[in-house]
Specification:
This protein is α/β, with parallel strands linked by helices. The chain folds into three domains: 235 residues, 4-Layer Sandwich (Metallo-beta-lactamase, Chain A), CATH 3.60.15; 100 residues, Oxidized Rhodanese, domain 1; 99 residues, Oxidized Rhodanese, domain 1 (3-Layer(aba) Sandwich). It has 17 helices and 23 strands. The relative contact order is 0.10.
Length: 469
């Protein structure tokens, strides 16, 4: 048996190929499915099974497209009631792929319909060797049970029982989850992408609580907010997203063509870096740096019903952005600005700019000149570490709380990505006197202006039991 993993940065999604002699399965596939077809060919496998552990909330799955391209069957939880051709799986179901046995455990909690796959390599022995547990168990964490309004207590109890079932497996069983650090499907997932049952039993903080009440209290406390696209991706995955090959092409648009589409209501999304956006950009455009956690913030901020127009520095970034947008169900990308912002400006079309200052200038300026500091990081980040007199409004909340922002204002985050996005949101709502702080709190600390930031020092592990001076 051979296992190969595939990691998506930003979403921190992990999918897998599990192969035997000549056939293989793909577990929890992402939407750009050619990567599995190419890998299977290189490994000498034919893809015969596509396995889904649950209806993913944080991304659009590629099961439909992969099935269309390979003819493989789709296997999904029977309780999900998926509306596409598939084989429904329930507790105790088994199937073989050559010498590898897959046994199904029902493990609800993160979602109501979740299943896990216990894998046995019969060539080597009769004991199970691997567990593909989706979002039930992570390295250093467990799946969040609060994604369904009003069902947090119910699902946390289901998760508690599902984890007990998983912990009945031998300590040597390898654990292969669907996410690592950076995913919002948990609250403190480790950066390590695999583990064992024994190691998690001993060191996973969530598994140290042996009563339901204590487990529930620990799990539901300080859970990060869920992005907007979490509400729609599960439903889209139950229906089956259309193949990306069948979506309309993304067109290169001259500045006049681009402007006409803007005037018809399409949203301009600038994906360049913050320095380029700050220098000049199309008025009213939103800014999400392609080098940031692009998919998550695009899914969180952008209206799924709006058509999108992209401004970039190169075509490669356009291709990358289109795929990352599609991963969170944002399929309405009409085109991109041919020739970039330079072509727009040289035709005499209107441009705007966003003032930016260094953290050194910030230190010398504030407090003073009547300016305020708006920190747009999460409330948890802000609570651990922030500048004196800063006010915290997390960037997604600015869509409705923009009226609380008083001008003039400096906007800061951890690096400059979120603060530039925040400034573009505020500009859309008429807040004009804004200055962005590239480098953010990371630059502030690196310049020696304050103590080590806890999240920088210890950013990829369980944080709730760690105390900071």
């Amino acid at each position: 048996m051979q296992i190969q993993s595939f990691f998506v940065r930003g979403l921190s999604h992990i999918s897998y190929i599990v192969g035997c002699q000549s056939r293989c399965v793909v577990i929890d596939p992402r939407r750009d499915t050619d990567i599995y077809i190419k890998a299977a060919e290189e490994l000498g496998y034919t893809i015969t099974h596509i396995l889904e552990t649950h209806l993913h909330a944080d991304f659009i799955s590629g099961h439909i497209e992969l099935a269309e391209k390979t003819g493989a069957g789709i296997y999904a939880p029977a309780s999900a009631h998926c509306r596409f051709p598939h084989i429904g799986l329930s507790e105790g179901d088994e199937f073989w792929v050559e010498n590898v046995r897959f046994r199904v455990l029902e493990t609800p909690g993160h979602t109501p319909e979740h299943i896990s796959f216990v894998v046995t390599d019969s060539v080597r022995g009769e004991d199970p060797c691997s567990l593909f547990c989706g979002d039930t168990l992570f390295v250093g964490d467990v799946g969040r049970p609060d994604l369904f309004p009003g069902r947090g207590e119910e699902l946390s109890e289901k998760l508690f029982n599902s984890l007990k079932k998983i912990l009945d497996l031998p300590d040597f069983v390898e654990v292969y989850p669907a996410h690592s650090a950076g995913s919002l499907c948990g609250k403190a997932i480790s950066a390590k992408q695999s583990s064992t049952i024994g190691y998690e039993r001993k060191y996973n903080p969530a598994l140290q609580y042996h009563s339901l009440m204590d487990f529930r209290e620990y799990l539901l406390k300080e859970m990060p907010p869920a992005p907007d696209h979490f509400k729609r991706c599960s439903a889209a995955n139950a229906l089956g997203a259309p193949s990306t090959d069948n979506l309309p092409p993304v067109l290169p648009l001259s500045p006049p063509e681009f402007k006409k589409r803007m005037e018809k209501g399409s949203l301009v999304l600038d994906i360049r870096d913050s320095a380029s956006f700050g220098g000049q950009h199309i008025p009213g455009s939103l800014h999400i740096d392609i080098g940031s956690n692009f998919s998550t913030f695009a899914g969180w901020i952008l209206d799924v019903n709006k058509s999108l127009l992209l401004v970039s520095q190169c075509f490669e970034d356009v291709e990358k952005a289109v795929m990352e947008l599609r991963r969170v169900g944002l399929d309405k990308v009409e085109g991109f600005l041919k020739g970039g912002i330079h072509a727009w400006a040289t035709l005499g079309l209107e441009v705007d700019h966003l003032p930016q200052i260094s953290i050194h200038q910030l230190r010398d300026t504030c407090p003073g000149q009547g300016r305020r500091i708006l920190d747009v990081r999460s409330s948890k980040e802000f609570g651990l570490y922030h500048l004196d007199s800063a006010v915290n409004i997390p960037v997604p909340e600015l869509r409705t709380r923009f009226g609380e922002v008083e001008e003039p204002v400096f906007v800061i985050c951890n690096s400059g990505h979120r603060s530039s996005l925040a400034a573009s949101i505020l500009r859309q709502h008429g807040v004009r006197d804004i200055t962005n702080i590239p480098g953010g709190m990371t630059g502030w600390r690196a310049a020696g202006y304050t103590q080590q930031c806890p999240l920088v020092e210890y950013s990829h592990g369980p944080r709730l039991k760690r105390k900071w001076e």
